[in-house]
Amino acid sequence: VSTMNAKTSCAGEEEASGMSNETLGESGCLGEAKRRQVIRVAYVIAALDLTFVFMQMGVMPYLAKSLGLDSVGFGYLQTIFGVLQLTGGYIFGRFADQFGARAALILSCASGSIFFLLMSLSTNIPLLFLSRLPGVFMHGIPGAQKVITDMTTPSQRAGALGKLGFCFGVGIISGSVVGGVLSTKFGVYVPTYVGLVGSLINTLIAMVWIPSRTKPKSDHHVTEHSTSQSGSLFSIREILRLMKFPGVMEVFIVKVFAGLPIGLFMIMFSIISMDFFGLEAVESGYLMSYFGVLQMVVQGLVVGKLTSHCSEMTLLRLSVFVFAGVGLGMALMRTVWHYCIIAVPMVFAFNMLATITDSMLTKAVPSSNTGAMLGICASVQPLTRTVGPTIGGVLYKQFGVSSFGYLQLMVNLGLFVYLLKSKIPLEEVKS
């Protein structure tokens, strides 16, 4: 009788909140307070994960230099890491769909532990390159996104996903500062020890606080192309199947191309900050902290409120339009102070675009495929990091810093006109 009562109350709660078991997995029976607690834990895991990532990013150039790796070799090291992240993003998403968000987060955190362990043992260049291999499954943000997607209704999703940008700001600031202090005072390997211990703690947090989730049931009312056709973790056919859902390809193209010029600029930023702005290393660190603060303010005070008052298509058009204005500003900027002003709308547009497109794309596919969709979205940044150094280097060398701005302006003006004229046939798929 108590079991029947529990099931009845669970069903009543789902009906009242407009959520189904399929939308929320096991979270449908967790209760609102428990769901909020799990989402907060996902934010904590994401913030810690990003902190450790930015710690190693700050230390890596010095560690590579101390082992005798030149700038060309360091470029190869970064490219390998980008390719691994690019390849692993979709595989990680499919893993999350098949085994649940909890298993995916544990895999990501455990891979981070192996990553930092190998880094701490890297006393020569081959070991340093070997330490990049676990990066194929290091996807803390997509893992947290999967948890949040399972724990929220479609109407809550954009705001909840947007708060992950706040975690990103925390990671930039704390990771850069802590990594710099530890490496300066105690040695270049100390941040890797901290990352190792922290990743192990993150793994335990995921194991204890993130509930297990059964695999989503199959859709019974959707069309043939809505049903997964492959049980393997990597399938080109599966990617193409997801892209055939109404509006998915259009939104994904906007997601890739709207932020591509800015992505190329940020990849070249370390060189631009030295050559064009004339900044010292410590000043570049202050600038990165400024970005982190902007990220936190935008995500904490702006994005969430806008998502509750405006439609997602309106916000998508707004982010693309602001990106076009940012491009014009970048084409005209001459000093680092100009860039600090431009950074405000740039951070806004970047975060809004990422949040809205992730929300729209996960709503447009069945709940059993949200992990794969998030994995595909997560592959955009590694793709930029992979091809960016070559394209960005050519643009900077041949045409100067202003070329990034003009490219940003032209691409986003074209996308804005496209979004105004076309009616993207997005429809929410419910399982």
UniProtKB/TrEMBL annotation:
One Gene Ontology cellular component term attached to this UniProt record is: apical plasma membrane
Question: In Gene Ontology terms, what is one molecular function of this protein?
Answer: transmembrane transporter activity
Q: Which Pfam families match?
A: MFS_1
Which keywords accompany this UniProt record?
Cell membrane, Membrane, Transmembrane, Transmembrane helix
Under the heading Gene3D superfamilies, the entry gives:
MFS general substrate transporter like domains
| Xref: InterPro entries | MFS, MFS_dom, MFS_trans_sf, Tet-R_TetA/multi-R_MdtG-like
Q: How does it sit in the membrane?
A: Multi-pass membrane protein
Q: Does the keyword Translocase apply?
A: no
UniProt-annotated stretches for the region Disordered: 1-22
SUPFAM superfamilies, per this entry? MFS general substrate transporter (SSF103473)
Q: Where in the cell is it found?
A: Apical cell membrane
Ranges for domain Major facilitator superfamily (MFS) profile? 35-426
Major location (coarse): membrane
Look up the domain of life of the source. Eukaryota
Membrane spanning residue stretches? 41-63, 75-92, 99-119, 164-182, 188-210, 251-272, 284-302, 314-330, 336-357, 403-420
Function per UniProt: May act as a transporter of organic cations based on a proton efflux antiport mechanism. May play a role in the transport of chloroquine and quinidine-related compounds in kidney. Plays a role in the regulation of lipid metabolism.
Q: What is this protein called?
A: Organic cation transporter-like protein 2
